[in-house]
Specification:
The structure is a single chain. By secondary structure, the chain is α+β, with helices and mostly antiparallel strands. Helix content is 17%, strand content 21%. A hairpin with a 2-residue loop joins strand 1 and strand 2 (34-40).
């Protein structure tokens, strides 16, 4: 189990393991003081990109 204070460690570990991944190309999700997930933002062609430029999915699932 990883706690919220581990979020920075997780972020830095992903950056170190993925050359070319921009610092703003990763999101570490934290809920109730625990790390719950990691998102890596990539383009449709598989290149790393800023999470700020990624299209956000709709609130309803697409069928």
């Amino acid at each position: 189990m990883l706690w919220a204070q581990d979020g920075r460690f997780v972020h830095q570990a992903f950056l170190a393991a993925n050359p070319g991944l921009p610092a703003h190309g990763i999101k570490v999700g934290i809920s109730h003081g625990m790390v719950i997930g990691v998102e890596i933002c990539i383009t449709k062609r598989g290149a790393f990109c800023s999470c700020r430029t990624v299209w956000r999915r709709p609130s309803r699932p697409l069928h």
